[in-house]
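Replying to the earlier thread about multi-chain prediction with a worked example.

Input:
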Amino acid sequence: MSILHTVNKSPFERNALQSCLKFANSGDPVLLFEDGVYAALKGTSAEGQVKSALDSQSIYVLGPDLKARGFSEDRVIDGVKVVDYAGFVDLAAENDKVQAWL
Amino acid sequence: MSEIIKKFLYLNRKAPYGTIYAWESLEVVLIGAAFDQEVRLMFLDDGVYQLTRGQDTTEVGMKNFSPTYRTLGDYEVKSIYVDKGSLQARGLSQDDLVQVAWEDWETGEEIENIVEVVDAARGSELMEESDVIFSF
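Result:
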């Protein structure tokens, strides 16, 4: 059983990402979208959390939400994969369940 | 002018798009400008993300209201402050932020960029000096 975890809250304002990473099984993918995309950026105080999670799971970030907020792909932490809406759908379809960390 | 002029401080602490706070704040600032008050804006915490350059919302189907920040100088807003610590925690610098120009229509005085990065002590001072604080 695999679960796609989605996080749409800023890591600086809520603990959604922190809880997500605490409970997600290793190997389960995490998708950052909406205000969650700020966690995917280099040089932030949340970078350490994301980098250590990358050792055990895939992390994705939704490109259109990054772009809306003024960030290009080169600002994204190495190893975090940028996906479009079709990629989001694929992830949802590939996994057995989707868990949304609101 | 015979009316009392108050110092208004708008505190912006939320990222744009994820919630409506940023846009609502901007609307209130623009309305407030019509009343000839002394208007200052301060951006801290996730609010600093409101000012990032190059926002492009075409793919998310939302209105891109970021160009409006650059026009604030035309709406009697003379001071925009950004909290340094909030930028640092997010790996950002002033280069990542839009510039806001200001010009006095009567004297022709011009300021190229009124966006100023300030430390927490200055931030406290700004709150202390204000007559009214609007929080978003």
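The mean pLDDT of chain B is 93.

Feel free to reuse this layout for your own posts.
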